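Section 5.1 Outputs to date
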Amino acid sequence: MAVNSSSNPTPMASLAKLPVPDLHDTVARFAEAARPLFSADEFETCLAKLNDFVATQGPTLQARLHQRSAEHANWLEDWWNEYAYFLNRSSVCFNVNYFFGFRDTPQPMAQARLAAALIDSAVRFRSQLESDSLELDNIRGKPMCMYQYQYMFATCRHPGEQRDWTEVYPRSESTHIAVAHKGRYFVLRVPAASTNRHADIAQIERQLQIIIDTTAQLERGKSIGVLTAALRDDWYTARECLLQVSSDNAASLRVLESSAFLVSLESVAPVTHKEFSLACHCSDGTDRYFDKNFQILVFANGRYGFNGEHSLTDATTDMRLCNVLVHDVETVAAEAQVASAGDVAEGAPATFEELHFDYNDELLGHIQRAIEYFDATVAAHELSTLVFDSFGKEQIKKMKVSPDAFVQMAMQLAYYRQFRHVPATYESASTKAFARGRTETSRSVSAHSAAWCKAMVDHPETTGLHAKAELLRQSIANQSQFTAQCAKGSGIDRHLLGLEFALQEGEERHALFEDQVFTGSRHWKLSTSQISDPILAAYGWGEVVDDGFGVAYRIENNALHFNVVSQRMGSARLCQYLADALMDMRFLLTNAHKQPHEIMAEVDAVANVLTSIKLLSSSSSQPTTPTETPAPQPESRFRGPFAETPVAHAMVDGLDRLPSNEVICALEARLSRFVKESLSWALPSTS
C-alpha cells in the first residue's frame, strides 16, 4: 500500500490535526500529577524549574511546535516513533512487542489446518485492505485514523548501529508467507484467493502438513530467530555478520524479511493461562522473527495467538485483523468441511521451499550469546496471570463508576500495599481520532488516589468508610477525566516530549529536562493498557523499566483478567494484591453508608451460619439406622437472608465449587482472614 494519504483507507482530510496543547495548562497539570510521587522538597525544586521554564525557554519551544504542526500532518509522529521505538536499544521481544492469545476454536482443529485457515484469512484481509474495501474504523460513529494499516503487512524492522528503521516492501516482492518450524524457515507461496475458500485452505494445509511431517529439528545453536530477541546493538552486529558470511544468507534474509507476515508452527502445547501467555510472549525464541510486522502463532495442540512488532502499529490496530482471523477460523471450524479430491483451487498450487543459511564461527558465537541472553532474561522474569471471576464490568457499572478507572485504582492500591509507595503509572490512551494519531499517556496517579491508598493502608483508623469511598470515587473521576482529555489531544506527556525534541542542535537544555522529578515521573513502574475483546484469552507485554511491571488487563461482563510481567519484582504477589484490592473496593463502594457496628453485625451473621453448618455437618456425619430417612438437602449451602449481605458474598464466593468436606475449613479460614486483615481498614475506631 502506498504511503500517500490518497490511497489510505481513512479520508485523512476529514480528520483534524493533533493539537498542540497550551503550555501553561500542560505545566500546571504536570505539576499536579507529579506532586504525589515525590517528597515536598523534591517537588518544590522541580516547581521552581517549571516556573522558570515557562518564563524563559518554554515559549520559544512552544512556538516551534506550532510551526511544526503547520508543516506536518502530525507534529508528534516522527518524534514519537524515534523516542519510543527506533532509538530504543532494548530487546523488542521482552520490552516492546505485544502478544495476543485467542480463545479456543469451537471444534478442535489440527495444527496444519488451523494455520492454513489463518493464512487464507490474512491473505484475504490484505486484499481488502489494498483494494480500499475495508469499512472505516470508528468509535460510536466517529471515524478513527487508519494510517497505520499501510504498515500492517510486508514490513520488517531492522537493527541499526545507533537507531532502528522499518522497511516497507512493495507488493511485487511480498506476496509470499514466511513459515517457521523446528528452528527452520520456509517460504510459502500461495495463489491469490479464489471463490472456493475451502479448496484454498486445503491446498495450503497440504503444504504445511508436509513441513510438519518431514522437517528435522535444527539445533538451537544455529537458530537465526533467537538473534532478533537480543539487545538491538547485539542484533545489529550479529545481522551484519550474518549478511557477510555468504550471499546466500543475504538472499534468504531478504526473502524472510520481505514476507507478508510470518506463521510459526510451534512444537509446544500450552495449556494453562500462564503457559499460554509465555508461549505467545516469547516461547524459546527459535520459531520466531521478532522484527516481522506480525507473527501468527499456531501451537501443536490447536491453540493459536499473535505477536506484534510495535514500532509503526499499535495493538488496537492489529485487533481489527485479529477479529477477522478468529471469526474466519471459527467459521471454518464450525463448518468442519474438508475439500474433496476434486475440489481444486483456482490458479497455481501453493508451494514451499526451505530458506538456507550458512554459518561461520563468528556467527555461531553471536547465536550462542543470544541464546544465553534469551535464557537468562526468561529466567529473570516472572509472568503471572489473574482470572478474577467474582465480578466484572456489570457490577462495577452498578456502583456508578468507570470500569477502566476502577481497575486502575485497584492497581494503585495493590502496588501500594506491596511496596508502600505511589508508582508512576502509564495507561495507554488512543489519539486515533486525529490524523496519524497513536497514543498518549493517561496518568493514573492523582492527589486523591495517593491519599486514598494511604487511607486504606497506612492509617485506616483515621478515616471512616464514607470518607474512604469519597476519596476512591474522586480518584476514579480524576482518572476518567484525564483519559478523556488525552483522547481529545490534551495530554501532557507527548507535549513535554515534543518540547524537548524542539530543542535545536547545540542549544542549551533547560535544567527542567534534567530534573529528577521531571524524569522520574516518567519512569513507569506500572505500564498498563486495556484491550477487552471477547476473542482474547491472553494479552500482554513486558515491563518498560527494570524495576517495574507490565500489566495488561481485560474487562469482561463478569470477570477481570490480568497479565503481569516483571523482573522478579513479585508478579504473583501483585496479582494476589489485585484480587484483594478489587474485593475491598467493591465492599467499600457498596457499604460506604454503613457504620462499623452494622458491618460487625453482618460478620456475626456469617459466623452464626458457620456455626450452624458445623452443627449440621456434625449431626449428618453420625451413622443412621435403617429406619431413619436422611433429611432433604437444601438446594444450596448458602441461601437465606445472610447470603445477600456483602460480607457473606465476600466470604462464600466460589465455595459452592468446593467438596462438602472442605467448606467448613474454607469458611473458617476466610472469616478469620476477612476480619483480621481485609476488614481492618473498614472498622476504624473513629470516623
